[in-house]
Design brief:
The structure holds two protein chains of two kinds. By secondary structure, chain A is α+β, with helices and mostly antiparallel strands. Chain A folds into two domains: 115 residues, Rieske [2Fe-2S] iron-sulphur domain (Rieske Iron-sulfur Protein, 3-layer Sandwich), CATH 2.102.10.10; 268 residues, Naphthalene 1,2-dioxygenase Alpha Subunit, Chain A, domain 1, CATH 3.90.380.10. Chain A is built from twelve helices and 23 strands. In chain A, the strands form five sheets. In chain A, strands 13, 14, 15, 16, 17, 18, 19, 20, 22 and 23 form a ten-stranded antiparallel beta sheet that branches. A four-stranded antiparallel beta sheet of chain A has the order 6-5-4-7, with no helix packed on it. The longest helix of chain A is centred in the C-terminal third of the chain and has 16 residues. Chain B folds into two domains: 115 residues, Rieske [2Fe-2S] iron-sulphur domain (Rieske Iron-sulfur Protein), CATH 2.102.10; 269 residues, Naphthalene 1,2-dioxygenase Alpha Subunit, Chain A, domain 1 (Alpha-Beta Complex), CATH 3.90.380. In chain B, helix 5 crosses helix 13. The chains are: A alpha+beta, B alpha+beta. Chains A and B meet through helix 1 of A and helix 6, helix 12 and strand 21 of B.
């Protein structure tokens, strides 16, 4: 069953919309994607509001690597391997905090919050042979931010972040740049799911039609399905990023601007372009995935009983970022953040949090539904007979048509349902995994 | 990850190691052959198998073995694998047996390893030569101060030559009285760490104590001041030990805290130089290459080992083995060794002292394991491959001119990583040897 590297060209057949089961289960492919996908891509590591003051830090993962994301006393954001340069033991065991120094628990080498080595017990024993300047914490060579989202890459030659984002930047403006006060709510929730990470990423990249079945309880609960032709775009990013934008049905826009509170509309109008602002007015949902593993979702729920709020509100929405962190081929750790416009009214923020917790996060109903599918697939794919059967991503194959839209570049007009987004996600993954 | 040539794994001159040393499956397979397949390996203490028919099951590298005192009173080390299909014939940890019978098809062997029973023997029609199918024996087995060693390599030099100057140190620990014995069966537990992190830590990491085991200060246990003599003893074959004396101005138990009742015998068995050194010692720690570590240490106060306030300062002697179970996993085996003729209350106090500090529930043990597991996890990640582990402290060391034992010892002035470098130098020689 082991995959040899000669088999790489056969793993994904984008023309016919099929994917080999081994990409979700095989250890060799997993190790290869740690190197070729995670160690070359721009990876989301934190939101700036998590480390607002000098000395603040959070510990995160970039693929399999543990990193510290800190704000130095100089105000700069640093992303550093969480490994002492003496024997590579992690120097920080906390999830988050504020500190002046990190001290290794093994032999006590001590680093500033910016990663400089400033303390070595029994330093004299080195007799001048230890160059402290050359033994700071190993920094990710590339760190950049966009609308407060902090990204890093291990690849010194990675293109600029903005170039990597491409047309996705225009979508990120809508989500993260519409006000000047976007912030995360509390620490991220984390839990493990016995699933390959790509099933989460691919699902958010663009699986729209599972909603009707997997999350079918919404019909059982009498919640309304959107009917009629609405605004619908699939935005293909240049580097495997995907965004799906869906509007309210004609005549059914019960929550303009993704149901965001009208108190922040003026600021949005000021910060967004006219095209962006007008598109936002029609939108009900934005979902997608920044390659490889950062997904985002902002969605409005019509009807207060869906999200557990008081009667009288036509719609409520929430914004979440989520990351699918690989731990093994068959195991991932899910990290989820809720983000809010701090300038929104307090009552709205409280309601949005209720809405989010009901639907997503470790106890959210949608989350539970999704994880059951991904874990089940991952489990099944390990069986040798199933391992011969390709997974199908061919819905709507041949009917994908590019068109103009208010944003940059061309987009696909999303048919009622289709799998063009996932085909593009796996096509890009396949290209990256073959780059020596 | 692209496999590195073995030659590039260790740079002793610079004192740096590549992460692959500790996590790479190819390196691991190589060391099973070159290190564990060729070196003398500790397998048991004679007091564990005192009578004919006694046996314990152990491992040499990943190979399961029986260490058995045969009916003829000779100790043999036998591969625990039936010659029919390789099944382990003995599934006990220890016991006494006249014969072992394979649980699969019933081939039966005596306590000396001879094949004496084959069910349906007639079906072989005379083509099975039972004499040629005794249990496979380690070609060389030798004992030093009750410590039984074996090797798979018939060309390995005799044990005393292999131990070299370390034999002199083992005399002080295991040969000081005639009735040294292990207490109970060894404690065993699994740690998700490469075995070499532990072996090197015991071979010579003295400076982690102040940080890793820093709770000692928090518990108000006294850190020793004063100038004390400390010898660092590296050897060409990778064995290494550190011997540290009490500071001259600190009231301290003599002779590593051993009971006075033993001293006449100790003085008779050891040389005057060994006795003189032992007089002022507070600590002996080290590692017999590749994976047998030893530690005899005196605690400063009864508060440290859990005794009543008027109890004496106490010491214990432990022998421990880091058994490889894959590149990122080991099984730790830990024995407490006591002088059997020491007073009963001293032996009990020594056991309390040991259990408080080492063994699976010992405070020191817990601290160490947290480091080794964390490092082993980090070393498996791709970005860590860009970095190196550093063993560069104290590249220039000063010879101890007053060292009376064999070999060349060095004076510990502050702290150094010399013994760890020596351990990895020897390991690297074996890995790269054709």
């Amino acid at each position: 069953m082991a995959i040899v590297r000669d088999d790489l060209p056969k793993l994904v057949d984008a023309e016919n919309g099929t994917v080999s089961p081994s990409i979700f289960t095989d250890w060799e492919i997993y190790k290869l994607e740690l190197e070729r996908v995670f160690n070359r891509s721009w990876l989301f590591v934190a939101h700036e509001s998590e480390i607002p003051r000098p000395g603040d830090f959070v510990t995160r993962r970039m693929g399999s690597e543990r990193v510290i994301v800190s704000r130095g006393t100089d105000g700069e954001v640093h992303v550093m391997l969480n490994a002492c340069r003496h024997r590579l033991r992690p120097v920080c065991l906390e999830d988050a905090g504020q500190t002046a120094h990190f001290g290794c628990p093994y032999h006590g080498w001590t680093y500033t919050v910016s990663g400089e080595l400033v303390g070595v017990p029994f330093f004299d024993a080195y007799e001048g042979r230890l160059d402290m300047g050359a033994n700071g914490l190993y920094h990710a060579p590339r760190v950049d931010t966009y609308h407060g989202l902090v990204f890093a890459s291990w690849d010194a030659h990675a293109g600029p972040l903005l170039e990597c984002l491409g047309s996705l930047a225009w979508v990120f403006d809508l989500l993260f740049g519409r006000t000047g006060s976007m912030e995360v709510v509390g620490p991220p929730m984390r839990w493990t799911v016995p699933s390959n990470w790509k099933l989460g990423a691919g699902n958010f990249a663009g699986d729209g039609h599972h909603v009707a079945v997997t999350h079918g309880f919404i019909s059982a609960l009498g919640m309304k399905n959107a009917r009629g032709r609405s605004v619908s775009y699939v935005v293909p990013g240049d580097h495997g990023h995907l965004a799906n934008l869906g509007g309210w049905p004609p005549g059914g826009n019960v929550g303009p601007f993704l149901a965001l509170p009208n108190a922040i509309w003026p600021e949005m109008e000021q910060r967004l372009s006219a095209e962006q602002f007008e598109l936002m007015r029609a939108l009900r949902v934005i979902a997608g995935n920044m390659f490889p593993n950062m997904s985002f979702l902002e969605t409005a729920s019509p009807g207060a009983h869906e999200w557990g709020g008081p009667e009288g509100l036509d719609a409520m929405s929430f914004l979440t970022i989520r990351q699918w962190q690989p731990l093994r081929p068959d195991l991932m750790e899910v990290w989820t953040w809720q983000l809010m416009d701090a300038s929104a009214p307090d009552w709205w923020k409280a309601a949005s949090r209720q809405c989010y917790l009901r639907e997503f996060g470790a106890g959210g109903i949608f989350e539970q539904d999704d994880a059951a599918n991904w874990a089940s697939i991952t489990h099944t794919l390990r069986a040798p007979a199933v391992g011969r059967l390709p997974l199908k991503y061919d819905m709507g194959l041949g009917s994908d048509e590019l068109m103009e839209w208010p944003g940059p570049g061309l987009v696909y007009s999303k048919p009622a349902v289709g799998e063009v987004s996932e085909r593009l996600f796996y096509k890009h993954w396949h290209a990256v995994i073959q780059e020596a | 990850m692209v496999a590195l040539p073995f030659a590039d794994l260790v740079d002793v001159e610079e004192g740096v190691l590549r992460p692959a040393v500790f996590v790479d499956p190819g390196v691991y397979r190589r060391e099973l052959e070159q290190v564990f397949g060729r070196q003398w390996l500790f397998v048991a203490h004679e007091s564990e198998i005192p009578k004919p028919g006694d046996f314990v099951t152990r491992s040499m590298g990943e190979d399961p073995v029986l260490v058995a005192r045969g009916a003829d009173d000779i100790v043999r080390v036998l591969l625990n694998a039936c010659r029919h299909r390789g099944r382990q014939i003995c599934v006990e940890d220890c016991g006494r047996a006249a014969q072992w019978m394979c649980p699969y098809h019933g081939w039966t062997y005596t306590s000396t390893g001879e094949l004496v029973g084959v069910p349906f023997f007639d079906a072989y029609r005379g083509k099975l030569d039972r004499a040629a199918f005794g249990l496979y024996q380690a070609p060389k087995v030798e004992t030093y101060n009750g410590l039984i060693f074996a090797t798979w390599d018939p060309d390995t030099p005799p044990l005393s030559e292999y131990l070299g100057p370390m034999a002199w140190v083992l005399d002080i620990l295991f040969g000081r009285t005639a009735n040294m014995q292990v207490v109970g069966p060894p404690l065993r537990w699994v740690v998700n760490s490469n075995w070499k992190l532990a072996a090197a830590n015991f071979a010579g990491d003295g400076h982690h104590i102040f940080v890793t085991h820093g709770f000692r200060s928090a518990l108000l246990l006294e850190t020793l001041g004063g100038k004390r003599t400390s010898y660092v003893l590296p050897t060409d074959r990778g064995h290494a030990a550190t011997l540290t004396c009490w500071p001259p101005d600190v009231p301290a138990p003599e002779h590593l805290g051993l009971p006075k009742a033993l001293m006449p015998e100790v003085k008779q068995r050891l040389s005057p130089d060994q006795v003189k050194l032992l007089e002022s010692l507070m600590l002996i720690v080290g590692n017999v290459f590749p994976n047998m570590s030893f530690l005899d240490t005196a605690s400063h106060t009864p508060a440290e080992w859990g005794g009543s306030p008027d109890a004496p300062q106490m010491s214990f002697l432990t022998l421990r083995q880091w058994q490889p179970k894959g590149p990122t996993k080991m099984e730790v085996w830990s024995w407490l060794v006591v002088d059997g003729d020491a007073p009963a209350d001293w032996r009990e106090a020594s056991r309390q002292c040991y259990l408080r500090e080492f063994g699976p529930g010992g405070v020191f043990e817990q601290d160490d394991v947290a480091n080794w597991e964390a490092i082993t996890e980090t070393l498996q990640t791709p970005i860590a491959q860009r970095l190196q582990l550093q063993y560069r402290m104290g590249m220039e060391v000063q010879r101890a001119m007053d060292w009376k034992g064999p070999g060349v010892a060095y004076l510990k002035r502050s702290f150094e990583e010399l013994n760890e470098r020596v351990f990895f130098k020897r390991w690297h020689e074996l890995i790269t040897d054709q």
